Amino acid sequence: MANHEQYFANENDRRRWLAGFIISRVFIYAFLAAFALFILLPFWFMIVTSLKHAGDYQTEQAQGILNLFPTNLTFKNFGTIFGAKWGYSASIPADREIAELGLGTSGENFVQYFTNTIIVAIASTIFMIITTVLASFAFARLEFKGKNLLFTLLLATMMVPGEMMIITNFQTANSLNWTNTYAALIFVHGISIFYIFYLRQTFQQIPNELYLAAKVDGYGEFGYLLKVMIPIAMPTIVTITILNVMGSWNAYIWPNLIATAENPIFGNSMKLVSNGLMSMFSNTFRSYDTLRIAGSMVVTAPLLIVFIFFRKYIMRGVSRSGIKG
Amino acid sequence: MVNKIKNEKERGTVTNNVAEKTAETPPPSNGGVTSSAHVLSDPQQTRLSEQKTLQTKRNRYIPIWAKAWIALIPALIFLVFFTFYPIINTFLYSFMGAYTHDLGADTSQYGQIFVSDGAGSFALAQFFASLAEWAEYIRNPAGYMGLTDPVQPIFTLENYRIVLTNDLFLNSLLNTMLLVVVSVPLTIIVALLISVFLNSIKALRGFFQTIFFLPYVTNSIALGMVFNVMFSYHDNGLMNMFLSWFGVDPINWLNLRIDFTGGDYIPAATRLAMFIAITIYTVWTGLAFKILVFMSGLASIDKQYYDAARIDGSSRFTIFRKITVPLLSPQIFYITITSFIGAFKAYTGVIALFADNTKNNGAGSFGGAEGTEWITVVGYIYREMGRGAELPSVASAGSVILLVLILLITLVQMQVSKKRVHY
Fold it and tell me: Is B407 an 8 Å CB contact of chain A?
């Protein structure tokens, strides 16, 4: 504020400017606070509703009131969606109905969905890192005929909507007998051209002198990749790892087509968390909002925890990509 | 003099350090300095080391281009099978007459050329086999006998006619246009305002930035479910409760007509109500990324422009219109192009909001009695794909049309940007 003093001819002008300044500040903060509330409200609604008793929620519905600050909290909803059958009292109608749905024995619960998603996320990330590091190394450092043509071709396919690939991949996966297997979920969309593009850019920023120095030290190309490039590019590799894990967590369309029933070998449900959430709450729990919201809560919470710890990496990767997941 | 002393001092410490280091390293067990000479004098050892150098030399003789292909092969195998080949194949599907559902549901003879319905066979192999068949067919259409089966591939534009005259597809185009005209600009304007305001404050900026980014790291199905409950038709739905403060009666946002015992009922959700719900959800999920991009753009604008404008006594609005928007035009252009493409690809958000995957052959509900009221282009493609009995040539035609639409938008916006964007 001190450096604005000189612009004012007299005290009156300064006062007028100050009044305008305060009014605009109040307006700006009010605007930002209003939208922050708009962003936070669904999260608060989710937390609160997932902790309500089903019976209390039904009573609220009947009376037409919504309690956003309930005092009578429970973790029963989470137990139910994870397949447990505890804590229901036979005297409360809503409790009795939920207990009678018999979810625990069907194998369709969030323990299974979490297991599937974690298996797919870990395997596909390892697969993605190996292929992406090697490919982006070739594009960034090695010279070969047709390099630019191949890279342009890769970039051009980023424009193509995923549906074009999914239609044929569904046929291919069927003919490979990959229906309801982990292989279909791990390999079919395991490589992202964007990650290759992103990592290649990081690799290209590494100065050429290091390459020559490594050659003098007797490293070959792959030794250089392992000992010099990967350590330097580690932040980018961490970023694409996080984005890929989040992508597996949020995958819906492809698993919804290919993993709808039981695994042919292990006989377990193959649904990932998003698909499990959608199918469970389109059918079994359609009319039990507290359970639906508890399901949303357990799918969202790990993402928010990852965000708290890796904020820097996620925001950097996102500002480059513009692609969700 | 001082320098000299300093230098000497430094040199002294350096030599000291070296001395310490040599003192610290334990002497080799077989007599220290003689060890290297000992190795050289041993004939067997010499041969071994020679072999070693030879081997490393041989390794270096793998040419660079071969190493490049070794590095590329793992990625390329999967890209060829699951990215390049599908694009070509789906493109060809969209022209294959034998697959249109006008020809009935008898799939027994369709599967011979492109699609393998037999166990263990691989679609790519079938693709190459069919290429040979086509070559044969194109060379001599009249005398074509077919290598595996007498079914002739029929090239036709019928699939495109089916898609482009389909009411559902036209509805999906209309819906997308409404999203592009209303939801996308609304989100961009709000994001721009928030970014400019955020950029003008110091206190709490990081706090607000983190909050506004939160919707990006959420699962769209899970949050769609939350919005589904928030837009509940009950009096205690969050949205209805909010409106009741202003004296508005509860609205049915998403559901069909609901009957109660005793003849009471809630009328079905109108098209407008559903659109408002979709738009609010779109704005909520879309703000995060746009604010992130705008904030990084604003950070790179030189502060001198603002100082100059302030000295000139320009109003805040003039500064916004004449400085911020033009200098932010690359980011605005980028956001517009990605949001328009995103609107054409809209699917998961909408089905999550209506939260019912039993409709449209498992593709999900888009509202309304048939679950198709707010269907999107992608939704139409998956609905066609899920029909099951027919092979996916109509869906393929739909996806090719989607590709053309995306290319068209990109081209038009490139042209606009040439005139309007300052780099």
Answer: yes
Return the axis-axis angle of helices A110-141 and A234-250, rounded to nearest 10°. Answer: 140
Q: Is the separation of the CB atoms in A81 and A298 below 8 Å? A: yes
Q: What is the spatial distance between Cα B27 and Cα B241, in angstroms, rounded to a whole number?
A: 83
Domain membership flag for residue A83: no
- Mean pLDDT score across all residues of chain B: 76
Tell me the C-alpha to C-alpha distance, in Å, between residue A88 and each of A85, A93, A281. Answer: 7, 10, 20
Query: What pLDDT sits at residue B105?
Result: 39
Q: Write the CATH number of the domain with boundaries B166-386.
A: 1.10.3720.10
Q: Domain range for residue A54?
A: 2-74
Q: Mind telling me how many Å the CA of B34 is from chain A's nearest CA?
A: 25
Selected for mutation to probe chain A from B127, B221, B348 (highest A CB count within 10 Å) is: B221
**pLDDT at B388 (0 to 100):** 58
* Residues A194 and A66 reside in one and the same domain: no
Q: Are residues A291 and A195 in the same domain?
A: yes
Provide, rounded to the nearest whole percent, the portion of chain B with pLDDT above 70.
71
Q: Which of B114, B226, B400 sits opposite A45 (nearest CB)?
A: B226
Contact, B284 vs A39, CB < 8 A?
yes
What residues pair up with B265 in beta bridges, in sequence order? B259
* Nearest residue in B to A61, CA atom: B236
Are B403 and A252 an interchain contact pair (Cβ–Cβ within 8 Å)? no
